[in-house]
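call fold target=DUF4349 domain-containing protein
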Amino acid sequence: MRTPHTARRRRTLAGVLLAACLALAGCGGAGDPGGSSKAASDGRAEAAGARGGTGGDGTAGGGRAVRGTPRLAPDAIIRTASLTVEVHDVSRALEAARTAAEDAGGYVGNETTSRDEDGHEQTRAVLRVPTERYDEVLAGLQGAGRVVERTAKAVDVTDQVVDVDSRVASQRASVARIRALMEKAAKLSDVVALEGELSSRQADLEALLARQASLKDRTGLATITLSLSEPPVRRAHGSPGFSDALSGGWHAFAGGLRWVALALGAALPFVALAALLVVLWLRVVRPRLPRSAGPAKATAAPGPLPSARPAPESAEPAGRVAAD
């Protein structure tokens, strides 16, 4: 059973608790004066966003969807092809290829024409055509002659295109924020720091824009590398005859004469120089050399020694006379 004293105590305790709660609420509001305004601004922003997300009639439950289905980015594909075709008239086939590319809305990029050792004309051209007309132009080029080689390649760069587009948008917003801060900056040091940051971000933005333009060019225009050449002359294979042997001998003889002429032509400057040196020696140097004295006169050779005269015949020996 409750007594009047107990009831009074409970009412007093309840009053004290209520007063304490009010005091705490007042202290919290005084300690954070900006909290209420921030919360109010956030609430107003959320309310405005909610109103913007509603249908055109201002009601959230209208017939229109609050947010539409996200639109998928179209496929970005880089298409390239290499085609080698043998034709009988290279100039006419090249002109037809140029006309086909221009009619499709493209153009001819690089073009190179040359001739091989046999005099056959060869041409290499790079065609840029819109992607939607790529298959049509490629089929027309294949029908110009006999296809020797054909390669085609398709590279999907959709992820790269989406990434670059997103980064370009973010970088542009970043540059805009730096410009806004520069307009509000009051100190010279702040202005200098912001200018350096703006230059860095502007350079990054220009690099992204260049990459974006490159991707747009390669995905918008397909590249076809066309090589045109004349068919080689096919020679009949068989046993060589007299005319073949004569022709081979004549070519060998002409080749030998050619090499001899080349050798003489190479030696002619040296021969001319040697002849000039000999002429100078005989006409200029040799006459100026001192002449040496002639050989001494030879002494008279001794004549033969005089021989002894024979003794005159004398009278016969005396002994012989006496004997007579």
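return ok
Helices lie at 4-31, 33-53, 90-103, 134-142, 158-184, 188-220, 242-285, 318-323. The longest strand covers residues 146-156.
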